[in-house]
Amino acid sequence: MRVFKLIVDFYIKGSIHVGLSCYALVRMTQHMFHISYEDSIAHFAFFGTIVGYNFVKYDALARAKKIQMRNELKAIALFSFCCFILVGYYFFQLQRVTQIVAVVFFSITLLYTLPFFPTKRNARNWAGVKIYIVALCWVGVTLGLPIINAEIPITADFYLKCLQRFILIFVLVLVFEIIDLANDDPHLKTVPQQIGVRRTKLLGLLLLLPFYFLEFLKSNFDKNQLVVNLLLVIMISLFLIFANDKRSKYYTSFWVESIPIVWWILLILG
Length: 270
Description:
Elements: H1 2-13, H2 16-32, H3 39-63, H4 71-91, H5 96-113, H6 130-149, H7 156-179, H8 191-195, H9 197-213, H10 223-241, H11 250-255, H12 259-269
C-alpha cells in the first residue's frame, strides 16, 4: 500500500496527471475541428505542461531554499529534465508559426513564475490576475496551438470554442481557489477572497450555463457533444458545490484535474 501511495504521489506531484488533462483537451480540440490525430502537438502539450507546472511549483521554493532536495524531489527534477528534452524534440516537429506562438506562452509561464521587474513580484502574485493567466494559457495551448499547427482557418466556431474553453478552465480554477482559501496569501485577491465562497460557487454555476449553451451556436453542432457536455456540467457542478477548504489535496489535484480526461473519454465512448 505504501508503494502504491508513493507512485500516486509522484504521479500527482510530478504533474503527470495535469499533463494528461492538457493532453486530453488537445485531443478534444482535434476531434471538435476534425483534425487528424497528429501526435507531435499533443505530446508537446503533454510534456510541456509537466515541465511548466513543475517549474512553477518548485522553482520559487527551491530558490528560496524552503525545500530540501529529498529523494522524491530529485526524482521529480530528473523526470522534468527528461520531459524538457522531449519538449524540445516535439517542438522542432511543429510548424514555424506554432513554434512562435508556443514561445509566447512559454514566456507567459516565465512571467508567471519569475520576478522580471526588481520592484514587482512575479505574475503569480499579482492581485486578482492569477486565474485569468492560467485560463488564458490553457486556452492557448489546448486550443490555439492545435488549430494553428493544423493550419485550420480561423472561423467563428474557433472563437466560440475559445470562450467555452476559457469558461471551463476558469470554473475549474475556482474550485482550486476555494480549496486553497485557508492557505492563500490574502494579497492574491482570489475570487473567494474577494466575494466569499458562497458567491464564488454561485458564479461558477452561472458560468456553466453559457459554457453549455454556446455549443448551440456552432455552425454544425454535434448532438453527442451536447449530451457529453451536459454530463460534464453536472460533474463540475457537484465538485463546485461540495468544495471547501477542509477537503483533501486529492480533491483538486486528482479528481478535479481528472475532469478534462473524463470529458475526452466520454466523447470517445459516445
